[in-house]
Design goal:
By secondary structure, the protein is of the alpha/beta class. It has helices at about 10-25, 50-55, 60-70, 85-95, 115-120, 130-140, 145-150, and strands at about 30-35, 40-45, 75-80, 100-105, 120-125. Helix content is about 40%, strand content about 15%. Strand 3 (about 75-80), helix 4 and strand 4 form a beta-alpha-beta unit. The N and C termini lie far apart (about 55 Å).
Length: about 150
């Protein structure tokens, strides 16, 4: 009988939280992400660096994805992010057939969650108070930057 090892999602989320905190200290939006193999091996981590790099495409998930480097397949990977993915990052997840997304929170933003679920992606929301508070505080202090990040006018 084959033993299946389930990775510790909270431990994986901690990697993304550390990236979000690093981004906040750099003056950016506190959203972090990490790409793991299904056995829990870290492939790449990143953070939203739109402000730091003046690059509107540098969201947390895209940064983690890029930092993971080229993979032969992404079907055996897990995207972990402190915040529910936006439409842009949800498209990346669908495009590369990432089957599982671990979300720190979807209280402050939840755009892509239902769409991902409707398309067969397993989304696990950990409802992290740390993630909810960190981004919520940032949004209250920086509403214009936040609205720019999510494409609101």
């Amino acid at each position: 009988m084959k033993t299946v090892i389930t990775p510790d999602y909270h431990l994986m989320l901690n990697t993304a939280i550390q990236q979000a905190q690093k981004g906040l200290k750099e003056g950016g939006i506190p959203i972090g992400a990490a790409l793991f193999s299904t056995n829990g091996t870290l492939l790449g981590k990143g953070r939203n660096r739109r402000i730091q790099n003046n690059d509107p495409s540098l969201h947390g998930e895209t940064d983690a994805f890029r930092n993971a480097g080229r993979q032969l397949s992404y079907t055996n990977t897990i995207m972990v992010t402190t915040l529910a993915p936006c439409w842009y990052c949800s498209g990346l997840i669908r495009q590369f057939k990432i089957k599982t997304v671990i979300v720190g929170e979807s209280v402050n933003f939840s755009d892509g969650v239902d769409w991902l679920k409707q398309n067969g992606i397993k989304v696990i929301d950990l409802h992290s108070e740390e993630c909810i508070t960190m981004l919520g505080n940032y949004i209250r202090r920086n509403p214009d930057i936040w609205n720019e990040d999510i494409g609101e006018e």
